[in-house]
Amino acid sequence: EVQLVESGGGLVQPGGSLRLSCAASGFTFSLYVMRWFRQAPGKEREFVAGISQHSTKTNYTDSVKGRFTISRDNAKKTVDLQMNNLKPEDTAVYYCQVFNSFGQGTRVTVSS
Fold first, then answer.
1. 26 FRET partner, CA 20 to 30 A, in 9, 16, 75, 103?
2. SS3 89
3. Of 22, 29, 30, 26, which Cα lies nearest the Cα of 2?
4. Model confidence at 99, in pLDDT bands (50, 70, 90)?
5. Coil/strand/helix, residue 100
6. Which among 43, 93, 3 has a CA at the least distance from the CA of 81?
7. What's the pLDDT at 21?
8. Which helix (H) or strand (E) holds 3?
9. How does pLDDT run across 10-36, given as a tens digit for each residue?
């Protein structure tokens, strides 16, 4: 059974940083592209970032390019999202994704 457990969310002021982490189990982690999504209040879930199986390729939605960095550790079966220069519009629940499975999410609130 695929399990994805996100952590690292919280309340941060605009311009601040957070690092999210997703611990995966139940599948061969190194064989799959991993992605982060987010869902802001009243909005649909949207793609944030993705990383290939051996970290050779990453991609980001335009609104986070230059501020967010996705990384993975295949030995630890984790995928992280480093978020810098956070903005109020980054406020959302952030989800880790593989196949059609999402974790329970971790809430990020950017507010002064």
1. 9
2. helix
3. 26
4. confident
5. coil
6. 93
7. 98
8. strand 3-7
9. 999 999 999 999 999 999 999 999 999
62, two tokens: 């335009």
CA distance linking residue 67 with residue 103, whole number of Å = 23
Of 20, 24, 32, residue with least CA distance to 94: 20
Q: What are phi and psi of 78, to 5 degrees?
A: -130, 150
Question: Is the distance from CB of 22 to CB of 78 less than 8 angstroms?
Answer: yes
Residue 33: what pLDDT?
Answer: 98
Tokens of 96: 């880790």
Tokens of 85: 């220069």
Q: Dmax over Cα atoms in the chain, in whole Å?
A: 41
Count Cβ atoms within 10 A of the Cβ of residue 40 and give its class: 0-12 exposed, 13-18 middle, 19 or more buried: middle
Quote the tokens at residue 99: 């196949």
Place of tokens 């980054």: 90
Distances (CA, A) of 78 to 5, 21, 51: 9, 7, 12
